[in-house]
Amino acid sequence: MTLAESTLLLTIQDVCSLPNRTAVVLTTNSVKEIVEPIFEFPIVSSPSQIPDDANIVIVVGGGSLIDETKILASEKKFHIVAIPSIWGSGAEVSPVAVFTDNGEKKFQVGDIFRPKYRCIIPNLADSIPTKLVEYGCGDSWSHVIEGGLSPLADDENRKNSAILIQEMLSIGIIKDPLWFDLSARACMIQSESSVGIIHAIAHTLEPILHLDGLVSWGHAKLCSILLWPVYSIFLENSDKWSNFVQEFNIEEKEISFTLQSLFDEEEYKILLNYISQYWSEIIKHPFTRTNSCLVRRNDIGRFMEVLN
Amino acid sequence: MGENLDKLAELLIDIFLLEPEEFNFDLTKQEIDTWDSLGTVAIAVGIQEEFAYHFTPDEANGLGSVREIIELLGSKGIDFG
């Protein structure tokens, strides 16, 4: 399935033309100033404020808000137009809805959770803090790499992944609204195949880090910091990457340079303690089992060696 | 035990998340809880990395025991002594 077939990209004008007696805008205060002048629909600031008779909810926000709205839409049967205020998660095209239950990160998967419509408001890029721009790009990179190299990826996935990698390299890690679309396409690639150990570590550790008070460690940050270590470990120990870049004529050094630019040694040291402590959970995680290369018990040593 | 048998045993212990003492070459798919669809994917990835043989999806899905893995790899010229 292509992205256009699963989630239709609407223009801002298309969204403005929706019948206003059935539509409502759900957004957060952080982007309300940008959103308010665009739409004439009523605006609410939390899913609980969505009127019972709303047929269409235009949700403008990050992955968590979009996911929360997707779950609600599956129960209340309203349509969603998903507009990301930040790139990375790809929640606006993903059939996955992530939620937290008693401190544990859980997810539901199904086409019912995939928004039928999405839209991009380029100006929203202006509201993204610099560090979150980097993390969002890192999250997208982890989707395209883990999805494209997944053992479940077919030739189409691999080809789309290679094309997307070239585009991501040409734009670079910068605040550019084009990332909204790159991010959606990266998410589509992983949703058609699988993710790997970067996501296994992120999903295992995020709630634990939060319980320990390290609340700045969100999913996108975890993926960004882990990209370079995981990439370098498997580049060294498997020929899958070198075959891939050779097949699609991608400059491997450019990828290394980009992923390395997202790496932060001090942050990784913090993470490494947790990876080591929770390694037995990480290797049992379903995402580890669909990693591009086999992850083995003693591979924890390789994560340590990245610092040497 | 042959070198390839040792290698296969270590690989399957890692793939199926077993303790070494839980493993033997007579294990069947039904006896290994972690030999599910993801386990089958992991077998295909692991065998390719360790033995440079790429299972077709039909081959990987058709495997029902450790002995069958050995037989199939043996038929592809991998020597298990």
Q: Element order, helices and strands of chain B?
A: HHHH
Number of helices of chain B: 4
- What would you call the shape of chain B? globular
CATH class of chain B: Mainly Alpha
SSE series of chain A: HEHEHEEHEEEEHHHHHHHHHHH
Regions of chain B with pLDDT < 50 over 5+ consecutive residues? none
Percent of sequence in beta strands of chain A: 5-15%
Largest interface: A-B, 14 and 12 residues
Oligomeric state of the chains? heterodimer
- The top level CATH class name of the largest domain in chain A: Mainly Alpha
Broad structural category of chain B:
mainly alpha
Query: In percent, how helical is the residue content of chain A?
Result: 40-55%
Detail the poorly predicted runs of chain A.
Answer: none
Gap from first CA to last CA of chain A: 43 Å
The overall pLDDT average of chain A reads 93
CATH architecture descriptor name of chain B: Orthogonal Bundle
What does this structure look like?
The complex is a heterodimer of chains A (about 300) and B (about 80). With about 300 residues, chain A is α/β, with parallel strands linked by helices. Chain A folds into two domains: about 5-125, Rossmann fold (3-Layer(aba) Sandwich), CATH 3.40.50; about 130-305, Up-down Bundle (Dehydroquinate synthase-like, alpha domain), CATH 1.20.1090. Chain A is about 55% helix and about 10% strand. Chain A is built from 15 helices and eight strands. Chain A has helices spanning about 5, 10-15, 30-35, 65-75, 130-150, 155-170, 180-190, 195-210, 220-235, 240-245, 250-260, 265-275, 280-285, 285-290, 300-305, and strands at about 10, 25, 45, 55-60, 80-85, 95-100, 105-110, 115-120. With about 80 residues, chain B is mainly α. Chain B has one domain (about 5-75): ACP-like (Non-ribosomal Peptide Synthetase Peptidyl Carrier Protein, Chain A). In chain B, about 55% of the residues lie in helices and about 0% in strands. Chain B is globular. The mean pLDDT of chain B is about 95. The interface of A and B includes residues 284, 290 and 294 of A.
